Automatic annotation (TrEMBL):
Protein name (record): ParA family protein
Organism per entry: Nocardioides antri
Span of domain AAA: 65-241
Entry's family note: Belongs to the ParA family.
One Pfam family named in its UniProt record: AAA_31
Top-level taxonomic group: Bacteria
InterPro entries, per database record: AAA_dom (IPR025669), DNA_Partitioning_ATPase (IPR050678), P-loop_NTPase (IPR027417)
Function: May play a role in septum formation.
Residue ranges of the region described as Disordered: 1-56
């Protein structure tokens, strides 16, 4: 059940901070208020933009950090971020596995797969112990990046898993053999907080929360934070929120900037300096069945995801 604070419309700037914090589900830590003298240019989040080095080169692969892309709100950029962050990390030499964990199968379609032509999917891995990871993994078309595809079959898993022993740990069990072979495993969650998403969070080290830079974007974030906290407490003590990513940002509108400002006030340093701007190139690249990093390699969208890859590497992979 959503609490009253989840149902409040997005906090307006004149609202007291307490209300904003409660509504955004942000942790107790708040953005630093003391101004630090800094002559670096301000980034889109209103903070000085750090210099982001290229990720450290790797000579051998694994163990992988498993990261879920999670927000129960639909259409916020989870799948787009999974594909393009993965492709950008692969460009930097990381071995990446993408897991399509949404019965809509958008991640698989976005990488050019046809939903009815998949021999094995994540569904088989979850429900049939004789299916091995290598039976399901397919190349993504991007060098260094593989995919575990899904289609609508996965929707049956949510129902069937309810009767399984250790039902929340099923994805963790099937991904275990992949940990040693990859540097990063990105799980594209469906827009719900049901058993599939709980499986993804239980299998993960970190969560990235993509949030559309629009009013109402923060609706339900408290509920998401609550779910993450419960999984961390009861099923997966190592789980942490790696970062909050502003997506579909339009710098020309005041409210886009206000949403980012509110996010930083509520989530502080968890908010990535990188912000993904709104551009039709993303839907074009989905139609083409490839990441924007190859479809429009020089576009601002491709550059933004490369920058995000550097931030993710700096915070969590190379730390
Ligand atoms: N930065 C962007 N600018 C413009 N369009 C975008 C951007 N990011 C994603 N889109 C488009 O918005 C739509 C929704 O994006 P996406 O599928 O990544 O969201 P999602 O959170 O995975 O959705 P769902 O909850 O349905 O799984 C897609 O058509 C995608 O191409
Ligand atoms: Mg999606």
């Amino acid at each position: 059940m959503e609490s009253a604070s989840d149902l409040l419309p997005f906090a307006r700037p004149e609202m007291p901070m307490e209300q904003t914090i409660e509504q955004t589900g942000a942790p107790e830590t708040r953005a630093e208020t003391a101004p630090v003298p800094d002559d670096r240019p301000l980034g889109p989040t209103g903070r000085p933009m750090p210099v982001l080095p290229d990720p450290k080169p790797v000579t051998e692969h694994g163990p992988a950090r498993v990261i879920s892309m999670c927000n129960q709100k639909g259409g916020v950029g989870k799948t787009t971020t999974t594909i393009n962050l993965g492709a950008a990390l692969a460009e930097f030499g990381r071995k990446v596995l993408l897991v399509d964990f949404d019965p809509q199968g958008s991640l698989s379609v976005g990488l050019g797969l046809h939903p009815h032509e998949m021999e094995h999917t994540v569904y088989n891995l979850l429900m049939d112990r004789t299916t091995r990871l290598e039976d399901v993994v397919v190349p993504s078309g991007v060098p260094g990046m593989d995919l575990l595809p899904s289609n609508i079959d996965l929707s049956a898993a949510e129902v069937q898993l309810v009767h399984e022993v250790a039902r929340e740990q099923t994805l963790q069990r099937v991904l275990a053999p992949a940990i040693g072979a990859y540097d990063v495993i990105l799980i594209d969650c469906q827009p719900s907080l049901g058993l599939l998403t709980v499986n993804a969070l239980t299998a993960s080290d970190g969560v990235i929360v993509p949030l559309e830079c629009e009013y109402f974007a923060l609706r339900g974030v408290a509920l998401l934070k609550n779910t993450i906290d419960k999984v961390q407490e009861r099923l997966n003590p190592k789980l942490e929120i790696d970062g909050v990513l502003g997506t579909m940002f339009d710098g020309r509108t005041l409210h886009g900037r206000e949403v980012l400002e509110r996010l930083v006030q509520a989530w502080g340093d968890k908010v990535y300096h990188t912000v993904i701007r709104r551009t039709v190139k993303f839907s074009d690249s989905t139609v083409a069945g490839e990441p924007i990093t190859s479809y429009a390699s020089d576009s601002t969208g491709a550059e933004a995801y490369r920058q995000l890859a550097k931030e993710v590497a700096l915070r969590c992979l190379d730390a």
